[in-house]
Amino acid sequence: MKKAILIVFILIQLPGFILAQGNDEGRNLKQLKVLTDSLKHLGQKLVNDPDDMERKNANYQFIRTLVAALKVPNSFNYSFDSVKAVSVINAPDNRFRIFSWHIVNEDGSYRFYGTVQINTGGPLKMFPLEDYSPLLKNPEDSVTDNRTWYGAQYYKIAAVKSGATPYYVLLGWKGNTVKSTKKVIEVISFNRNGQPVFGAPVFDGNGKTRKRVVFEYARQASMLLRYIPEENIIVFDHLSPPDQRSAGKPETFGPDLSYDAYRLNNGKWKYAENLDMRNIATSQDQNEYIDPKKQAIKDRQQVPSKH
Length: 307
Known about the structure:
Helix content is 25%, strand content 33%. By secondary structure, it is an alpha+beta fold. The chain folds into two domains: 1-78, no CATH class; 86-280, no CATH class. Strands 5, 6, 7, 8, 9 and 12 form a six-stranded antiparallel β-sheet that branches. It has a six-stranded mixed β-sheet with strand order 11-10-16-15-14-13, with no helix packed on it. It is globular. Residues 4-12, 14-20 and 295-307 have low confidence and may be disordered.
């Protein structure tokens, strides 16, 4: 008898419960849309404002607004794809995602910001990323955490199954100075406490094992750095100096029309020179990071003149 009464009670209450859930989801979505509008406005300001202090103030507000947005229930399922200043990439297994963005300093250098949001299905769990780049003297030899992050703006992530500790490879754009740009192949994994770890000794080549790979080249140049899943390779332009005198000056380097790669082999990436790109399948997923400031200039140049 008691069991029957309980079932009737549940059936009576269920429609109201579903309605309440629907109302909560509607409120959450509305709140996220309002916060997203603020993020879009602040994002444009932190990228494009000519005043250094205004960019930095917009960035501080951007951080606070983003944290508020991520605290909204079920925010992990919200894409934020309309906020162009920030790159958001989800792990292939949907275990986590990474937000990353940058501001340009007055001297033309870059500072990067970001956070790793864990997919908890409940309360917010995230790890803010603090750009430690200026203090990392040997970034290719360093394993770091979220507080000593080698800052970059990521545009691609790939999962690698390697023994008991799977890891993920990130491709990122790093900016650098008024003379040069950097790109990076990064590794992220998680320790026993669930905290992110950046860097791992998985890149073998040129007589050295690297924990991450850093490329530097002339700022006016463009460099290909792409993951091709069909081939399990990371392919990139071979960078060379314009002449012998510039051999030790990476800020003068540029692509020389040849390609190298890292090829996945038993959980590690083996260096391969002079790749024949004619034999490499072209991936459909070719999104690379484009500097928002350069893209804005390009867009303005493509607008037809009114005269």
